[in-house]
TrEMBL record:
InterPro entries the UniProt entry points to: Exo/Archaeosortase_dom, Exosortase
Chief place of localization: membrane
TM annotation in the entry: 16-35, 80-100, 109-135, 147-165
Topological category with respect to the lipid bilayer: Multi-pass membrane protein
Protein name, as recorded: Exosortase/archaeosortase family protein
GO biological process: proteolysis
Length: 180
């Protein structure tokens, strides 16, 4: 029974690994053909993040406006959002992880959509905070841009993955070593 269970777990892990490699190859093909940096999808996400950042600042009583990829707060050019910072790659990594792990398809779809919304909103909040950081304390801007807010967003994604594994995926069974 234990040998049979171990074989099943190993088989599932190999399947996940093979799917991950195939998905990575597919992503790279799409990235170099359809989803080029600063392409239509990349630009749409960037513009949306900057728009929503401006919207939320104004909604909560601040003064902001934007161009396609730049946020202005109180008339000051505060944040330029480039393709590497729009969250597309982390959204793809998050979605791929959930899609590759065992679980019900409908649950995966709902969880991916909710997770993408959370990542999008956290990245929007990151842009807002960086904008105010730039205006208030330029000396800490580069550090916070490079480390602090990136760690926060990645921690949110990690927490979403852990929640997926613990509550919604059957993947936790792969690592359950209880041999009863």
């Amino acid at each position: 029974m234990i040998v049979e269970q171990q074989y099943h777990h190993n088989h599932q892990l190999k399947t996940i690994g093979i799917r991950a490699i195939l998905l990575f190859i597919l992503w790279k093909l799409l990235q170099f053909t359809l989803i080029q940096e600063d392409g239509l999808i990349d630009s749409a996400i960037t513009e949306s993040i900057v728009f929503m950042s401006s919207f939320f600042i104004n909604f909560f009583g601040g003064e902001a406006y934007h161009t396609a990829s730049t946020l202005y707060i109180n008339g000051i050019k505060s944040v330029f959002v480039g393709s590497p910072c729009n969250g597309l790659v982390i959204m793809v990594i998050f979605s791929s992880f959930v899609a590759l792990t065992p679980g019900k398809v409908t649950t995966k779809i709902v969880y991916i959509l909710v997770g993408l919304l959370i990542i999008y909103l956290s990245n929007t909040l990151r842009v807002i905070m960086l904008g105010y950081n730039y205006i208030q304390d330029l000396e800490t801007f580069n550090f916070n841009h490079k480390y602090t807010y990136v760690i926060i967003v990645y921690s949110i994604v990690f927490a979403l993955w852990m929640l997926w594994i613990e509550k919604f995926s059957s993947m936790k069974d792969l690592f359950n070593t209880n041999d009863q």
